[in-house]
Each structure stands twice: as C-alpha cells, then as structure tokens.
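Quick illustration, no need to memorize.
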Amino acid sequence: MSNQSINNPMRILLSVLAMAAVSLACLGVVSAASAQDYPAKPIRMIVPYPAGGGTDIAARWICQRLSEQLKQQVFVDNRAGANGNLGTSNIAKAAPDGYVIGMATPGPVTVGRSLYHDLPYDPQKELEPIILANESPIVLVLNPSLPAWSLSPGAGLGSSPRRWYRRDRCRIF
C-alpha cells in the first residue's frame, strides 16, 4: 500500500467516523439494556478467519482504537473455519449484551446461505451491520512474464503498453 493511500485525508476521516460509529453503537446497545456503566468488562471481537489475514489486521486496528476510546480492553478472538461460517455463527449466537462484536465479510453473510444450506445461523435475522469497517480491493494477478495487458474483449495478449494489474497504472476495462 502506498503512502498516498494511507495518508489520504478522506480515508482518515472515514476511519475516525467509523470508530466513532462503532463506539456509539456499542454504547447504545448496552445502555438501553443495562443500568451499569458500559463497558464494565473486556469486549471480544470475533474474527471468523485466521490471524494474519486482512480481516484480522483490520480488526486489530479497530480493537486498538476502540480500547482507547472506551477505556476498556477490546480484543480479537480468531474463530476460523468453514470459510468464515464458524466464527460468524459464534457472532450470531452470542448474547446480545454488547460484549461480543464481530467482523463479518461478504461470504458468510451474503452468499453463504446459497452455498451452505445447513448454516446454523440466518444472517438476515441474527446479524445487524453497524458500519463498513474496511474496503479491500480484489484484483486479478498473473505472472509478469506473461504478455497479457488487458482483459477487455478483443484486447487479448500484448495489445496495450499499459499493464492493467500494476497499481500505479491500474485502469478499469
């Protein structure tokens, strides 16, 4: 990732607003259900993927910021397996007390029902989106020795001097 995308003022503003939204959402959920000060104990963020991946890295960054804002530990609990379905099920089945939150990705919450007919949770009924926590582009890649320059119909191999997969020269086709 380039310094330009990291230091983009709009990205920074959106990140700060997202953290504030998560904090307020956590506070709102619990304040209505409980008279005690929230959070009175650590908050667990379930990540349905192994440590070290993109979802885990984003969750750890969010947990650090939430811990600072809430003055309480917010920690990552990786629950990997079944393409994210195990951890997402844990999020869906957690007590609605504000002490378990989770990172959800499109697979387990959108297309999961069509791929796995025996999901132990219903994403539309048991999960509520709070914020868009992360945007992660997905790109097609290939070996740089292959002379493919575009995926446009008719463009074929070697038809353009600009490689579509180079971040500094990326283009929509």
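The longest strand covers residues 43-47.
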